[in-house]
Amino acid sequence: MPESIVTAGSVSEAEWALRQELAACYRLFVKYGWTDLIFTHLSARVPGCSDQYLINPFGLLFGEITASNLIKVDFAGNVVSGDYPYNDAGHAIHSAVLRSRPDINVALHSHTRAGTAVSCMQCGLLPLSQQANEIGNLVCYHRYDLATDNEQECKNLGEDLADKWAMIMHNHGLLAAGRTMAEAFYLLYTLESACKIQVDVMASGAEQIIPDKKAIASVEKSGLVGKAEKARTPDNYLDRNWQALIRMLDREDPSYRE
């Protein structure tokens, strides 16, 4: 395990706060069973540095991630701080997303069983649940390819994301993005829940009930993800939800803050 790379006093207050939030997100992936050994990756754009981001050192389990051992990487692939390597696929995916969308500051990628199962379905995400209908209009799709050694593939990923906030990567997994950690986490949680429900419904063999388009549109309209004006309202549910999760982590194991 690498030694601590930074301390609270060696970076700006904004960066340290973001490091703690990102480390918390890694621990929440463990809590909800979204990990895949040492693989998959979560990133956050460094405050004040549009072309640099924080990501996990490749080789650590998500339960080992702390604010101090996250590494800082620029879009060219140079490690700005830290002497530990990053996952090549992680750099390819996260730099592509952050480069293509200056309004995005956080990107979360998962290989969960349910998310990957839906990524293998020709039908894509179906409007079977309230979870799916809340975010269905935010989701795009990306055709499977190997991202680690293909510049065109990275470009395609950014183009496919376009103005959406979540991506189902065919035969691969899920991606959620946000302006804040609260927004990105809520989106991934909701997308993962929708995928689980879809897999369960399809596996049951029961006849499906599809809501009418008016009902689906009403649910979509109520969501906050990706809506700058509504998300800025005081005490919006994205921030309330995130703070509740932070309180839970602090009660159970606050070591992510170190």
CATH architecture: 3-Layer(aba) Sandwich
Q: Tell me the radius of gyration.
A: 18 Å
Amount of beta strand: 5-15%
Along the chain, the helix and strand elements come as HEEEEHEHHEHEEHHHH
Q: Assembly type of the shown chains?
A: single chain
Number of helices: 9
Intertermini distance: 14 Å
The pLDDT mean sits at 92
Shape: globular
Which bin fits the share of residues in helices?
Answer: 40-55%
Instruction: Give the name of the CATH superfamily.
Output: Class II aldolase/adducin N-terminal domain
| Count of structural domains | 1
**Beta strand count:** 8
Largest sheet entry: 8 strands, mixed
CATH topology: L-fuculose-1-phosphate Aldolase
Unreliable spans are none
User: What structural class is derived from the secondary structure elements?
Assistant: alpha+beta
CATH class: Alpha Beta
Description:
The chain is globular, with a radius of gyration of 18 Å. The chain has one domain: L-fuculose-1-phosphate Aldolase. The protein has helices at 13-31, 88-100, 113-119, 130-135, 151-161, 181-204, 213-222, 228-231, 237-252, and strands at 42-45, 52-55, 71-74, 79-81, 106-110, 139-142, 166-169, 173-178. The protein starts with 12 loop residues before the first helix and ends in a 6-residue tail after the last helix. A hairpin with a 4-residue loop joins strand 3 and strand 4 (79-81). The longest helix has 24 residues, at 181-204. The protein contains 9 helices and 8 strands. The chain is of the alpha+beta class. An 8-stranded mixed beta sheet has the order 4-3-2-1-5-8-7-6, sandwiched between helices.
